[in-house]
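FW: tagging you since you asked about this chain on Friday. Here's the raw sequence from the shared folder, copied in full. Didn't touch anything.
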Amino acid sequence: MNTENKTSRIAGFYRLDIDERMRKVREFAELGDEDVGILQQGGISLEEANRMIENVVGRIQIPLGIATNFLINGKDYLIPMAIEEPSVVAAASNAAKMIREGGGFTAGSDEPIMIGQIQLLIENPEEARDRILVNKKQILSLANEQDSILIKLGGGARDIEVRILDNGMLIIHLLVDVRDAMGANVVNTMCEKVSPFIEEITGGKVNLRILSNLSVKRMARAEVKIPPSALGGSEVVDAIILAYEFANSDPYRSVTHNKGVMNGISAVALATGNDTRAIESGVHAYASMKGRYKPVSHWSRDNKGYLVGRIEIPLAVGIFGGATMSKSSRVNLKILGVKTSQELAEIMASVGLAQNLAAIRALSTEGIQHGHMSLHARNIAAMSGAEGGQIDKIAEILIAENNITVSRAKKVLEEMK
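HL: got it, structure written out here
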């Protein structure tokens, strides 16, 4: 298929049945029969699961959806999202459609530098700091002996920072370019390898040696400019900005604001086999770095009246290693068509910004429950015992009556029978 003709703008994608949706995705990403089978029939095997964690007894399944309409740095993407919460995939797709009206997302990212921390216990931390910095070249050389493949790929230990905490602890930061991996294993290995030498040159005692998930050297960012007409008018722009200002002033609101961002980011992370807990802890810690918990996105109006949205967050993600090598993760990465970990981070930042826009636009207009009602009603109908076409018919009645309860669904089902 000619890549120039590919577009993520697929009108009525949500109206298609599952087979037709997969046909569209298959054409876009040039998936084979095996790829389709992995996503629709298998996921990970029990054998694969048993290699990933301990004490395996089975697997659980989470729905995998495709968000459409994403145009990032001039390139179209279909976005695999693994999540159990209703409306998230639809909301991301709808927001991306609005953002497309302003030219799509402009995204960028830093080099994939991870921070490894070495905790040194010593009586004279200032003197130890000087000794470490004098021996920086040798420490980096020793670290780089641990992964010749990473060095060949252009990565490796790049620099050292030394911090003295308020309690007198000395913390060494080993800065490692991990290329297209998330990087935890290689960073931890390097920290452990250089620790005996650090003890030797300082006379101190190393305690912890582990990476930090606050990966502020590895930032991803995205920006959008949306015409008011795409959002529903200038009053909607005002409402969105007021919603942002609420979050910026109140941590009780900003934590839920950021949860909306992470709905998008974590769903893509899970679909691609990345560490959702590491990503979430890093983003929430970053939101607190200025002394109070803040929103990680920013919304304002430019001099043309356009809504301007920005996000900048630490995103330590990979396309090689760990769970990203599972069969289902490889297929989802194939759908995305990403070539580097930086590209994946830029996509995830864009999805987070889109998800945030969808949430605060809904909250400031019709309310958040409006988008949930259709899927919620279908779930209630299924719980009542409805099957097949009965589910949609009953859901329509429940929504029309604004009475989405199991008892009402059961009564409607009885009347239909």
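FW: The two ends are 48 Å apart (CA to CA).
HL: agreed, and The longest helix spans residues 341-364.
FW: great, closing this out.
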